[in-house]
Amino acid sequence: MDFDRISFYVENARASRDWFVNRLGFQAIAASANSHTHTEIVNSGNVCFTLSSPLTLTSPAASWLKFHPPGIFDVGFRVKNIELTVARAANKGAKVIEPIQKHLQAEGCFKRAKIAGWGDLSHTLIETIDTTSLLPDSPTLPLSPSAPLLSPSPTLPFFTNIDHVVLNVELGDLEVAVNWYQKTLGFQTQQNFDIQTEKSALRSRVMIHSEGGVQLPINESASANSQIQEFLDANRGPGIQHMALQTTDIVGVVANLRSRGLPFLPVPPTYYSQLPQRWQNYLPEDWQEIVASQVLADWPEDSSEAMLLQIFTQPIFAEPTFFFEIIERRVGLVNGKQVQAGGFGAGNFRALFEAIEREQMKRGSLTNDR
Description:
There is one protein chain. By secondary structure, the chain is an alpha+beta fold. The protein folds into two domains: 2-130, 2,3-Dihydroxybiphenyl 1,2-Dioxygenase, domain 1 (Roll); 162-363, 2,3-Dihydroxybiphenyl 1,2-Dioxygenase, domain 1. The chain contains nine helices and 18 strands. The chain has an eight-stranded mixed beta sheet with strand order 2-3-4-1-5-8-7-6. An eight-stranded mixed beta sheet has the order 10-11-12-9-13-16-15-14, sandwiched between helices. It is globular.
């Protein structure tokens, strides 16, 4: 299983398209409209987003935006056998929103279905049948044949893939949601985090699919005033809190994104001064640039070169809900073999939690009532 397209409902699809192009360096590749919904499609490398906004009150986008702020309503997955995947999900109680259908288009031949996910989230499932006319590893784009193509981007993409997508659930629902994704879609628990500060706390279970690279951390508030609860209040229910976009040059990409006016969560200087002394045994050539970029750094005990580098944007919509993570997983030697940094560093996880706490305090939404 791999990530396919990710779908947003937004208030104005064209304005959101321009934001992704101008702020995140995405490429606008297609557009389509029907009697009630306007959709723009943007991509960067193998990352593909659809941005849909309502044209009438009967639009599904209008129904979503009546109850939620703009955000992700569908996380798409590419699967090896859609019949088995849908049958398993339905057998375990998942609601099938759209049955399996076969699509023949210029982009290729594929099968498509949709199931209900957690809360108001849905999951589009896609199995590619014929890849002869598809670009290598390109996300499937089931569009109207009349959708006009826009001018291609003259620059290389900033991002290569989606690293992970994070789901926030209501208090008491963490283990239930974890079990649901295990039973219906075959995810497994990879890591557990329980983060607590003097002000708030959360619990997290990192899920990874048994047949592919899809990672799905699921968070639950462990205090009444945590950032997870703030998200749930603003989103008016569970939903996708953030998504991590992979890059091979986080320092260069972050510098470019800052020049485009994209705001990031600030990191205090004490974060770097408090890093363990073992950095003295290994400092990458671009260490000063990493610090200057305010990128978080973590690494496994047995390979300091296999660094996990992360940085987080401010929320991209008006309410404190969805934001992006930029991530680079560097390769290092472990027992003589090259290994890419995996998982989620506990130090970075806590640093993100504390950074969002500082933003909560600026908004006045974090009190000492736990």
